[in-house]
């Protein structure tokens, strides 16, 4: 997730309990392919040992740039490449990327083929049901499945639905059928409103044909969501301290403002008596040193 699953937060999650596979934030292929943007792209693609196995997610609309970026990813330590054909962000869509690919299927195929022929890594796709109507999946998903991607992650909403309506779990059986008919070797990953591991296992019992379950915003509610563990307040505070230390470690090489770091505080300081007061104090800080001072003095 953009602005979330960076090299720092992934290490925090790995400490709490990692998923089977991590995905990076998405990196723009034209940024990687340009002299000006490459350093920034490589910064986003830096990984830590505890990240592995990890998939690099990329987006863009230029087939040659997909190829150029994919050529680099194996040597950077990734286990696979995921093409983002689902992002609903208006800037991304205006640039022809993310969910805009749903409306330019020929270009989507060209980008996929260019990516696949440029790397030995498995190439997967993450997308949505369609642009405006959920029923579009009946035409759109076969376009992708005909390319036999290593995996297909389906966020069970349309671009227009953003994340504002419940995920369309009712369409899962039909999506499984399409996968089985067109490309049985493609791993099917379902995404949208899956809270945690227990929820994923419940879905797995109902639909054993699904190969994976992707959790996004579940980490905001519980950074231990990939485990069966319910964290204590002290464990969450430990994660916060770890995040602060990682921020200090990476800030020299990675652009991450202290203000951005503050977005994460709510993940750790939540749902315990005194959490709101502590969070309010921490939101007023401007440095890691001050945050540490407040945490040390906190009386719960
Ligand atoms: C802050 C934020 C950033 C996101 N960035 C990405 C991204 O870079 N790539 C991607 O495939 N999806 C991204 N997503 C979408 C999620 O991966 C996921 O598809 C969506 O939130 C629905 O799943 P969930 O209900 O488990 O969160 C992002 C979502 C959020 C909230």
Low-pLDDT segments: none
| Beta-strand segment tally | 7
Nearest-integer average pLDDT: 96
CATH architectural label of the largest domain: Alpha-Beta Barrel
Instruction: Give the overall form.
Output: globular
Quickly count the helices. 15
Q: What is the ordering of alpha helices and beta strands?
A: HEHHEHEHHEHEHEHEHHHHHH
Number of domains: 2
Please write the CATH class name of the largest domain.
Alpha Beta
The biggest sheet, with number of strands, parallel, antiparallel or mixed sense and barrel status, is: 7 strands, parallel
**CATH homologous superfamily placement of the largest domain:** Aldolase class I
End-to-end Cα distance: 32 Å
Query: Ligands bound here?
Result: flavin mononucleotide
Helix/sheet category: alpha/beta
Query: What strand line-up does the widest sheet have?
Result: 1-2-3-4-5-6-7
Q: Calculate Rg over CA atoms.
A: 20 Å
Helix amount, in percent? 40-55%
Strand content: 5-15%
Q: How is the CATH topology of the largest domain named?
A: TIM Barrel
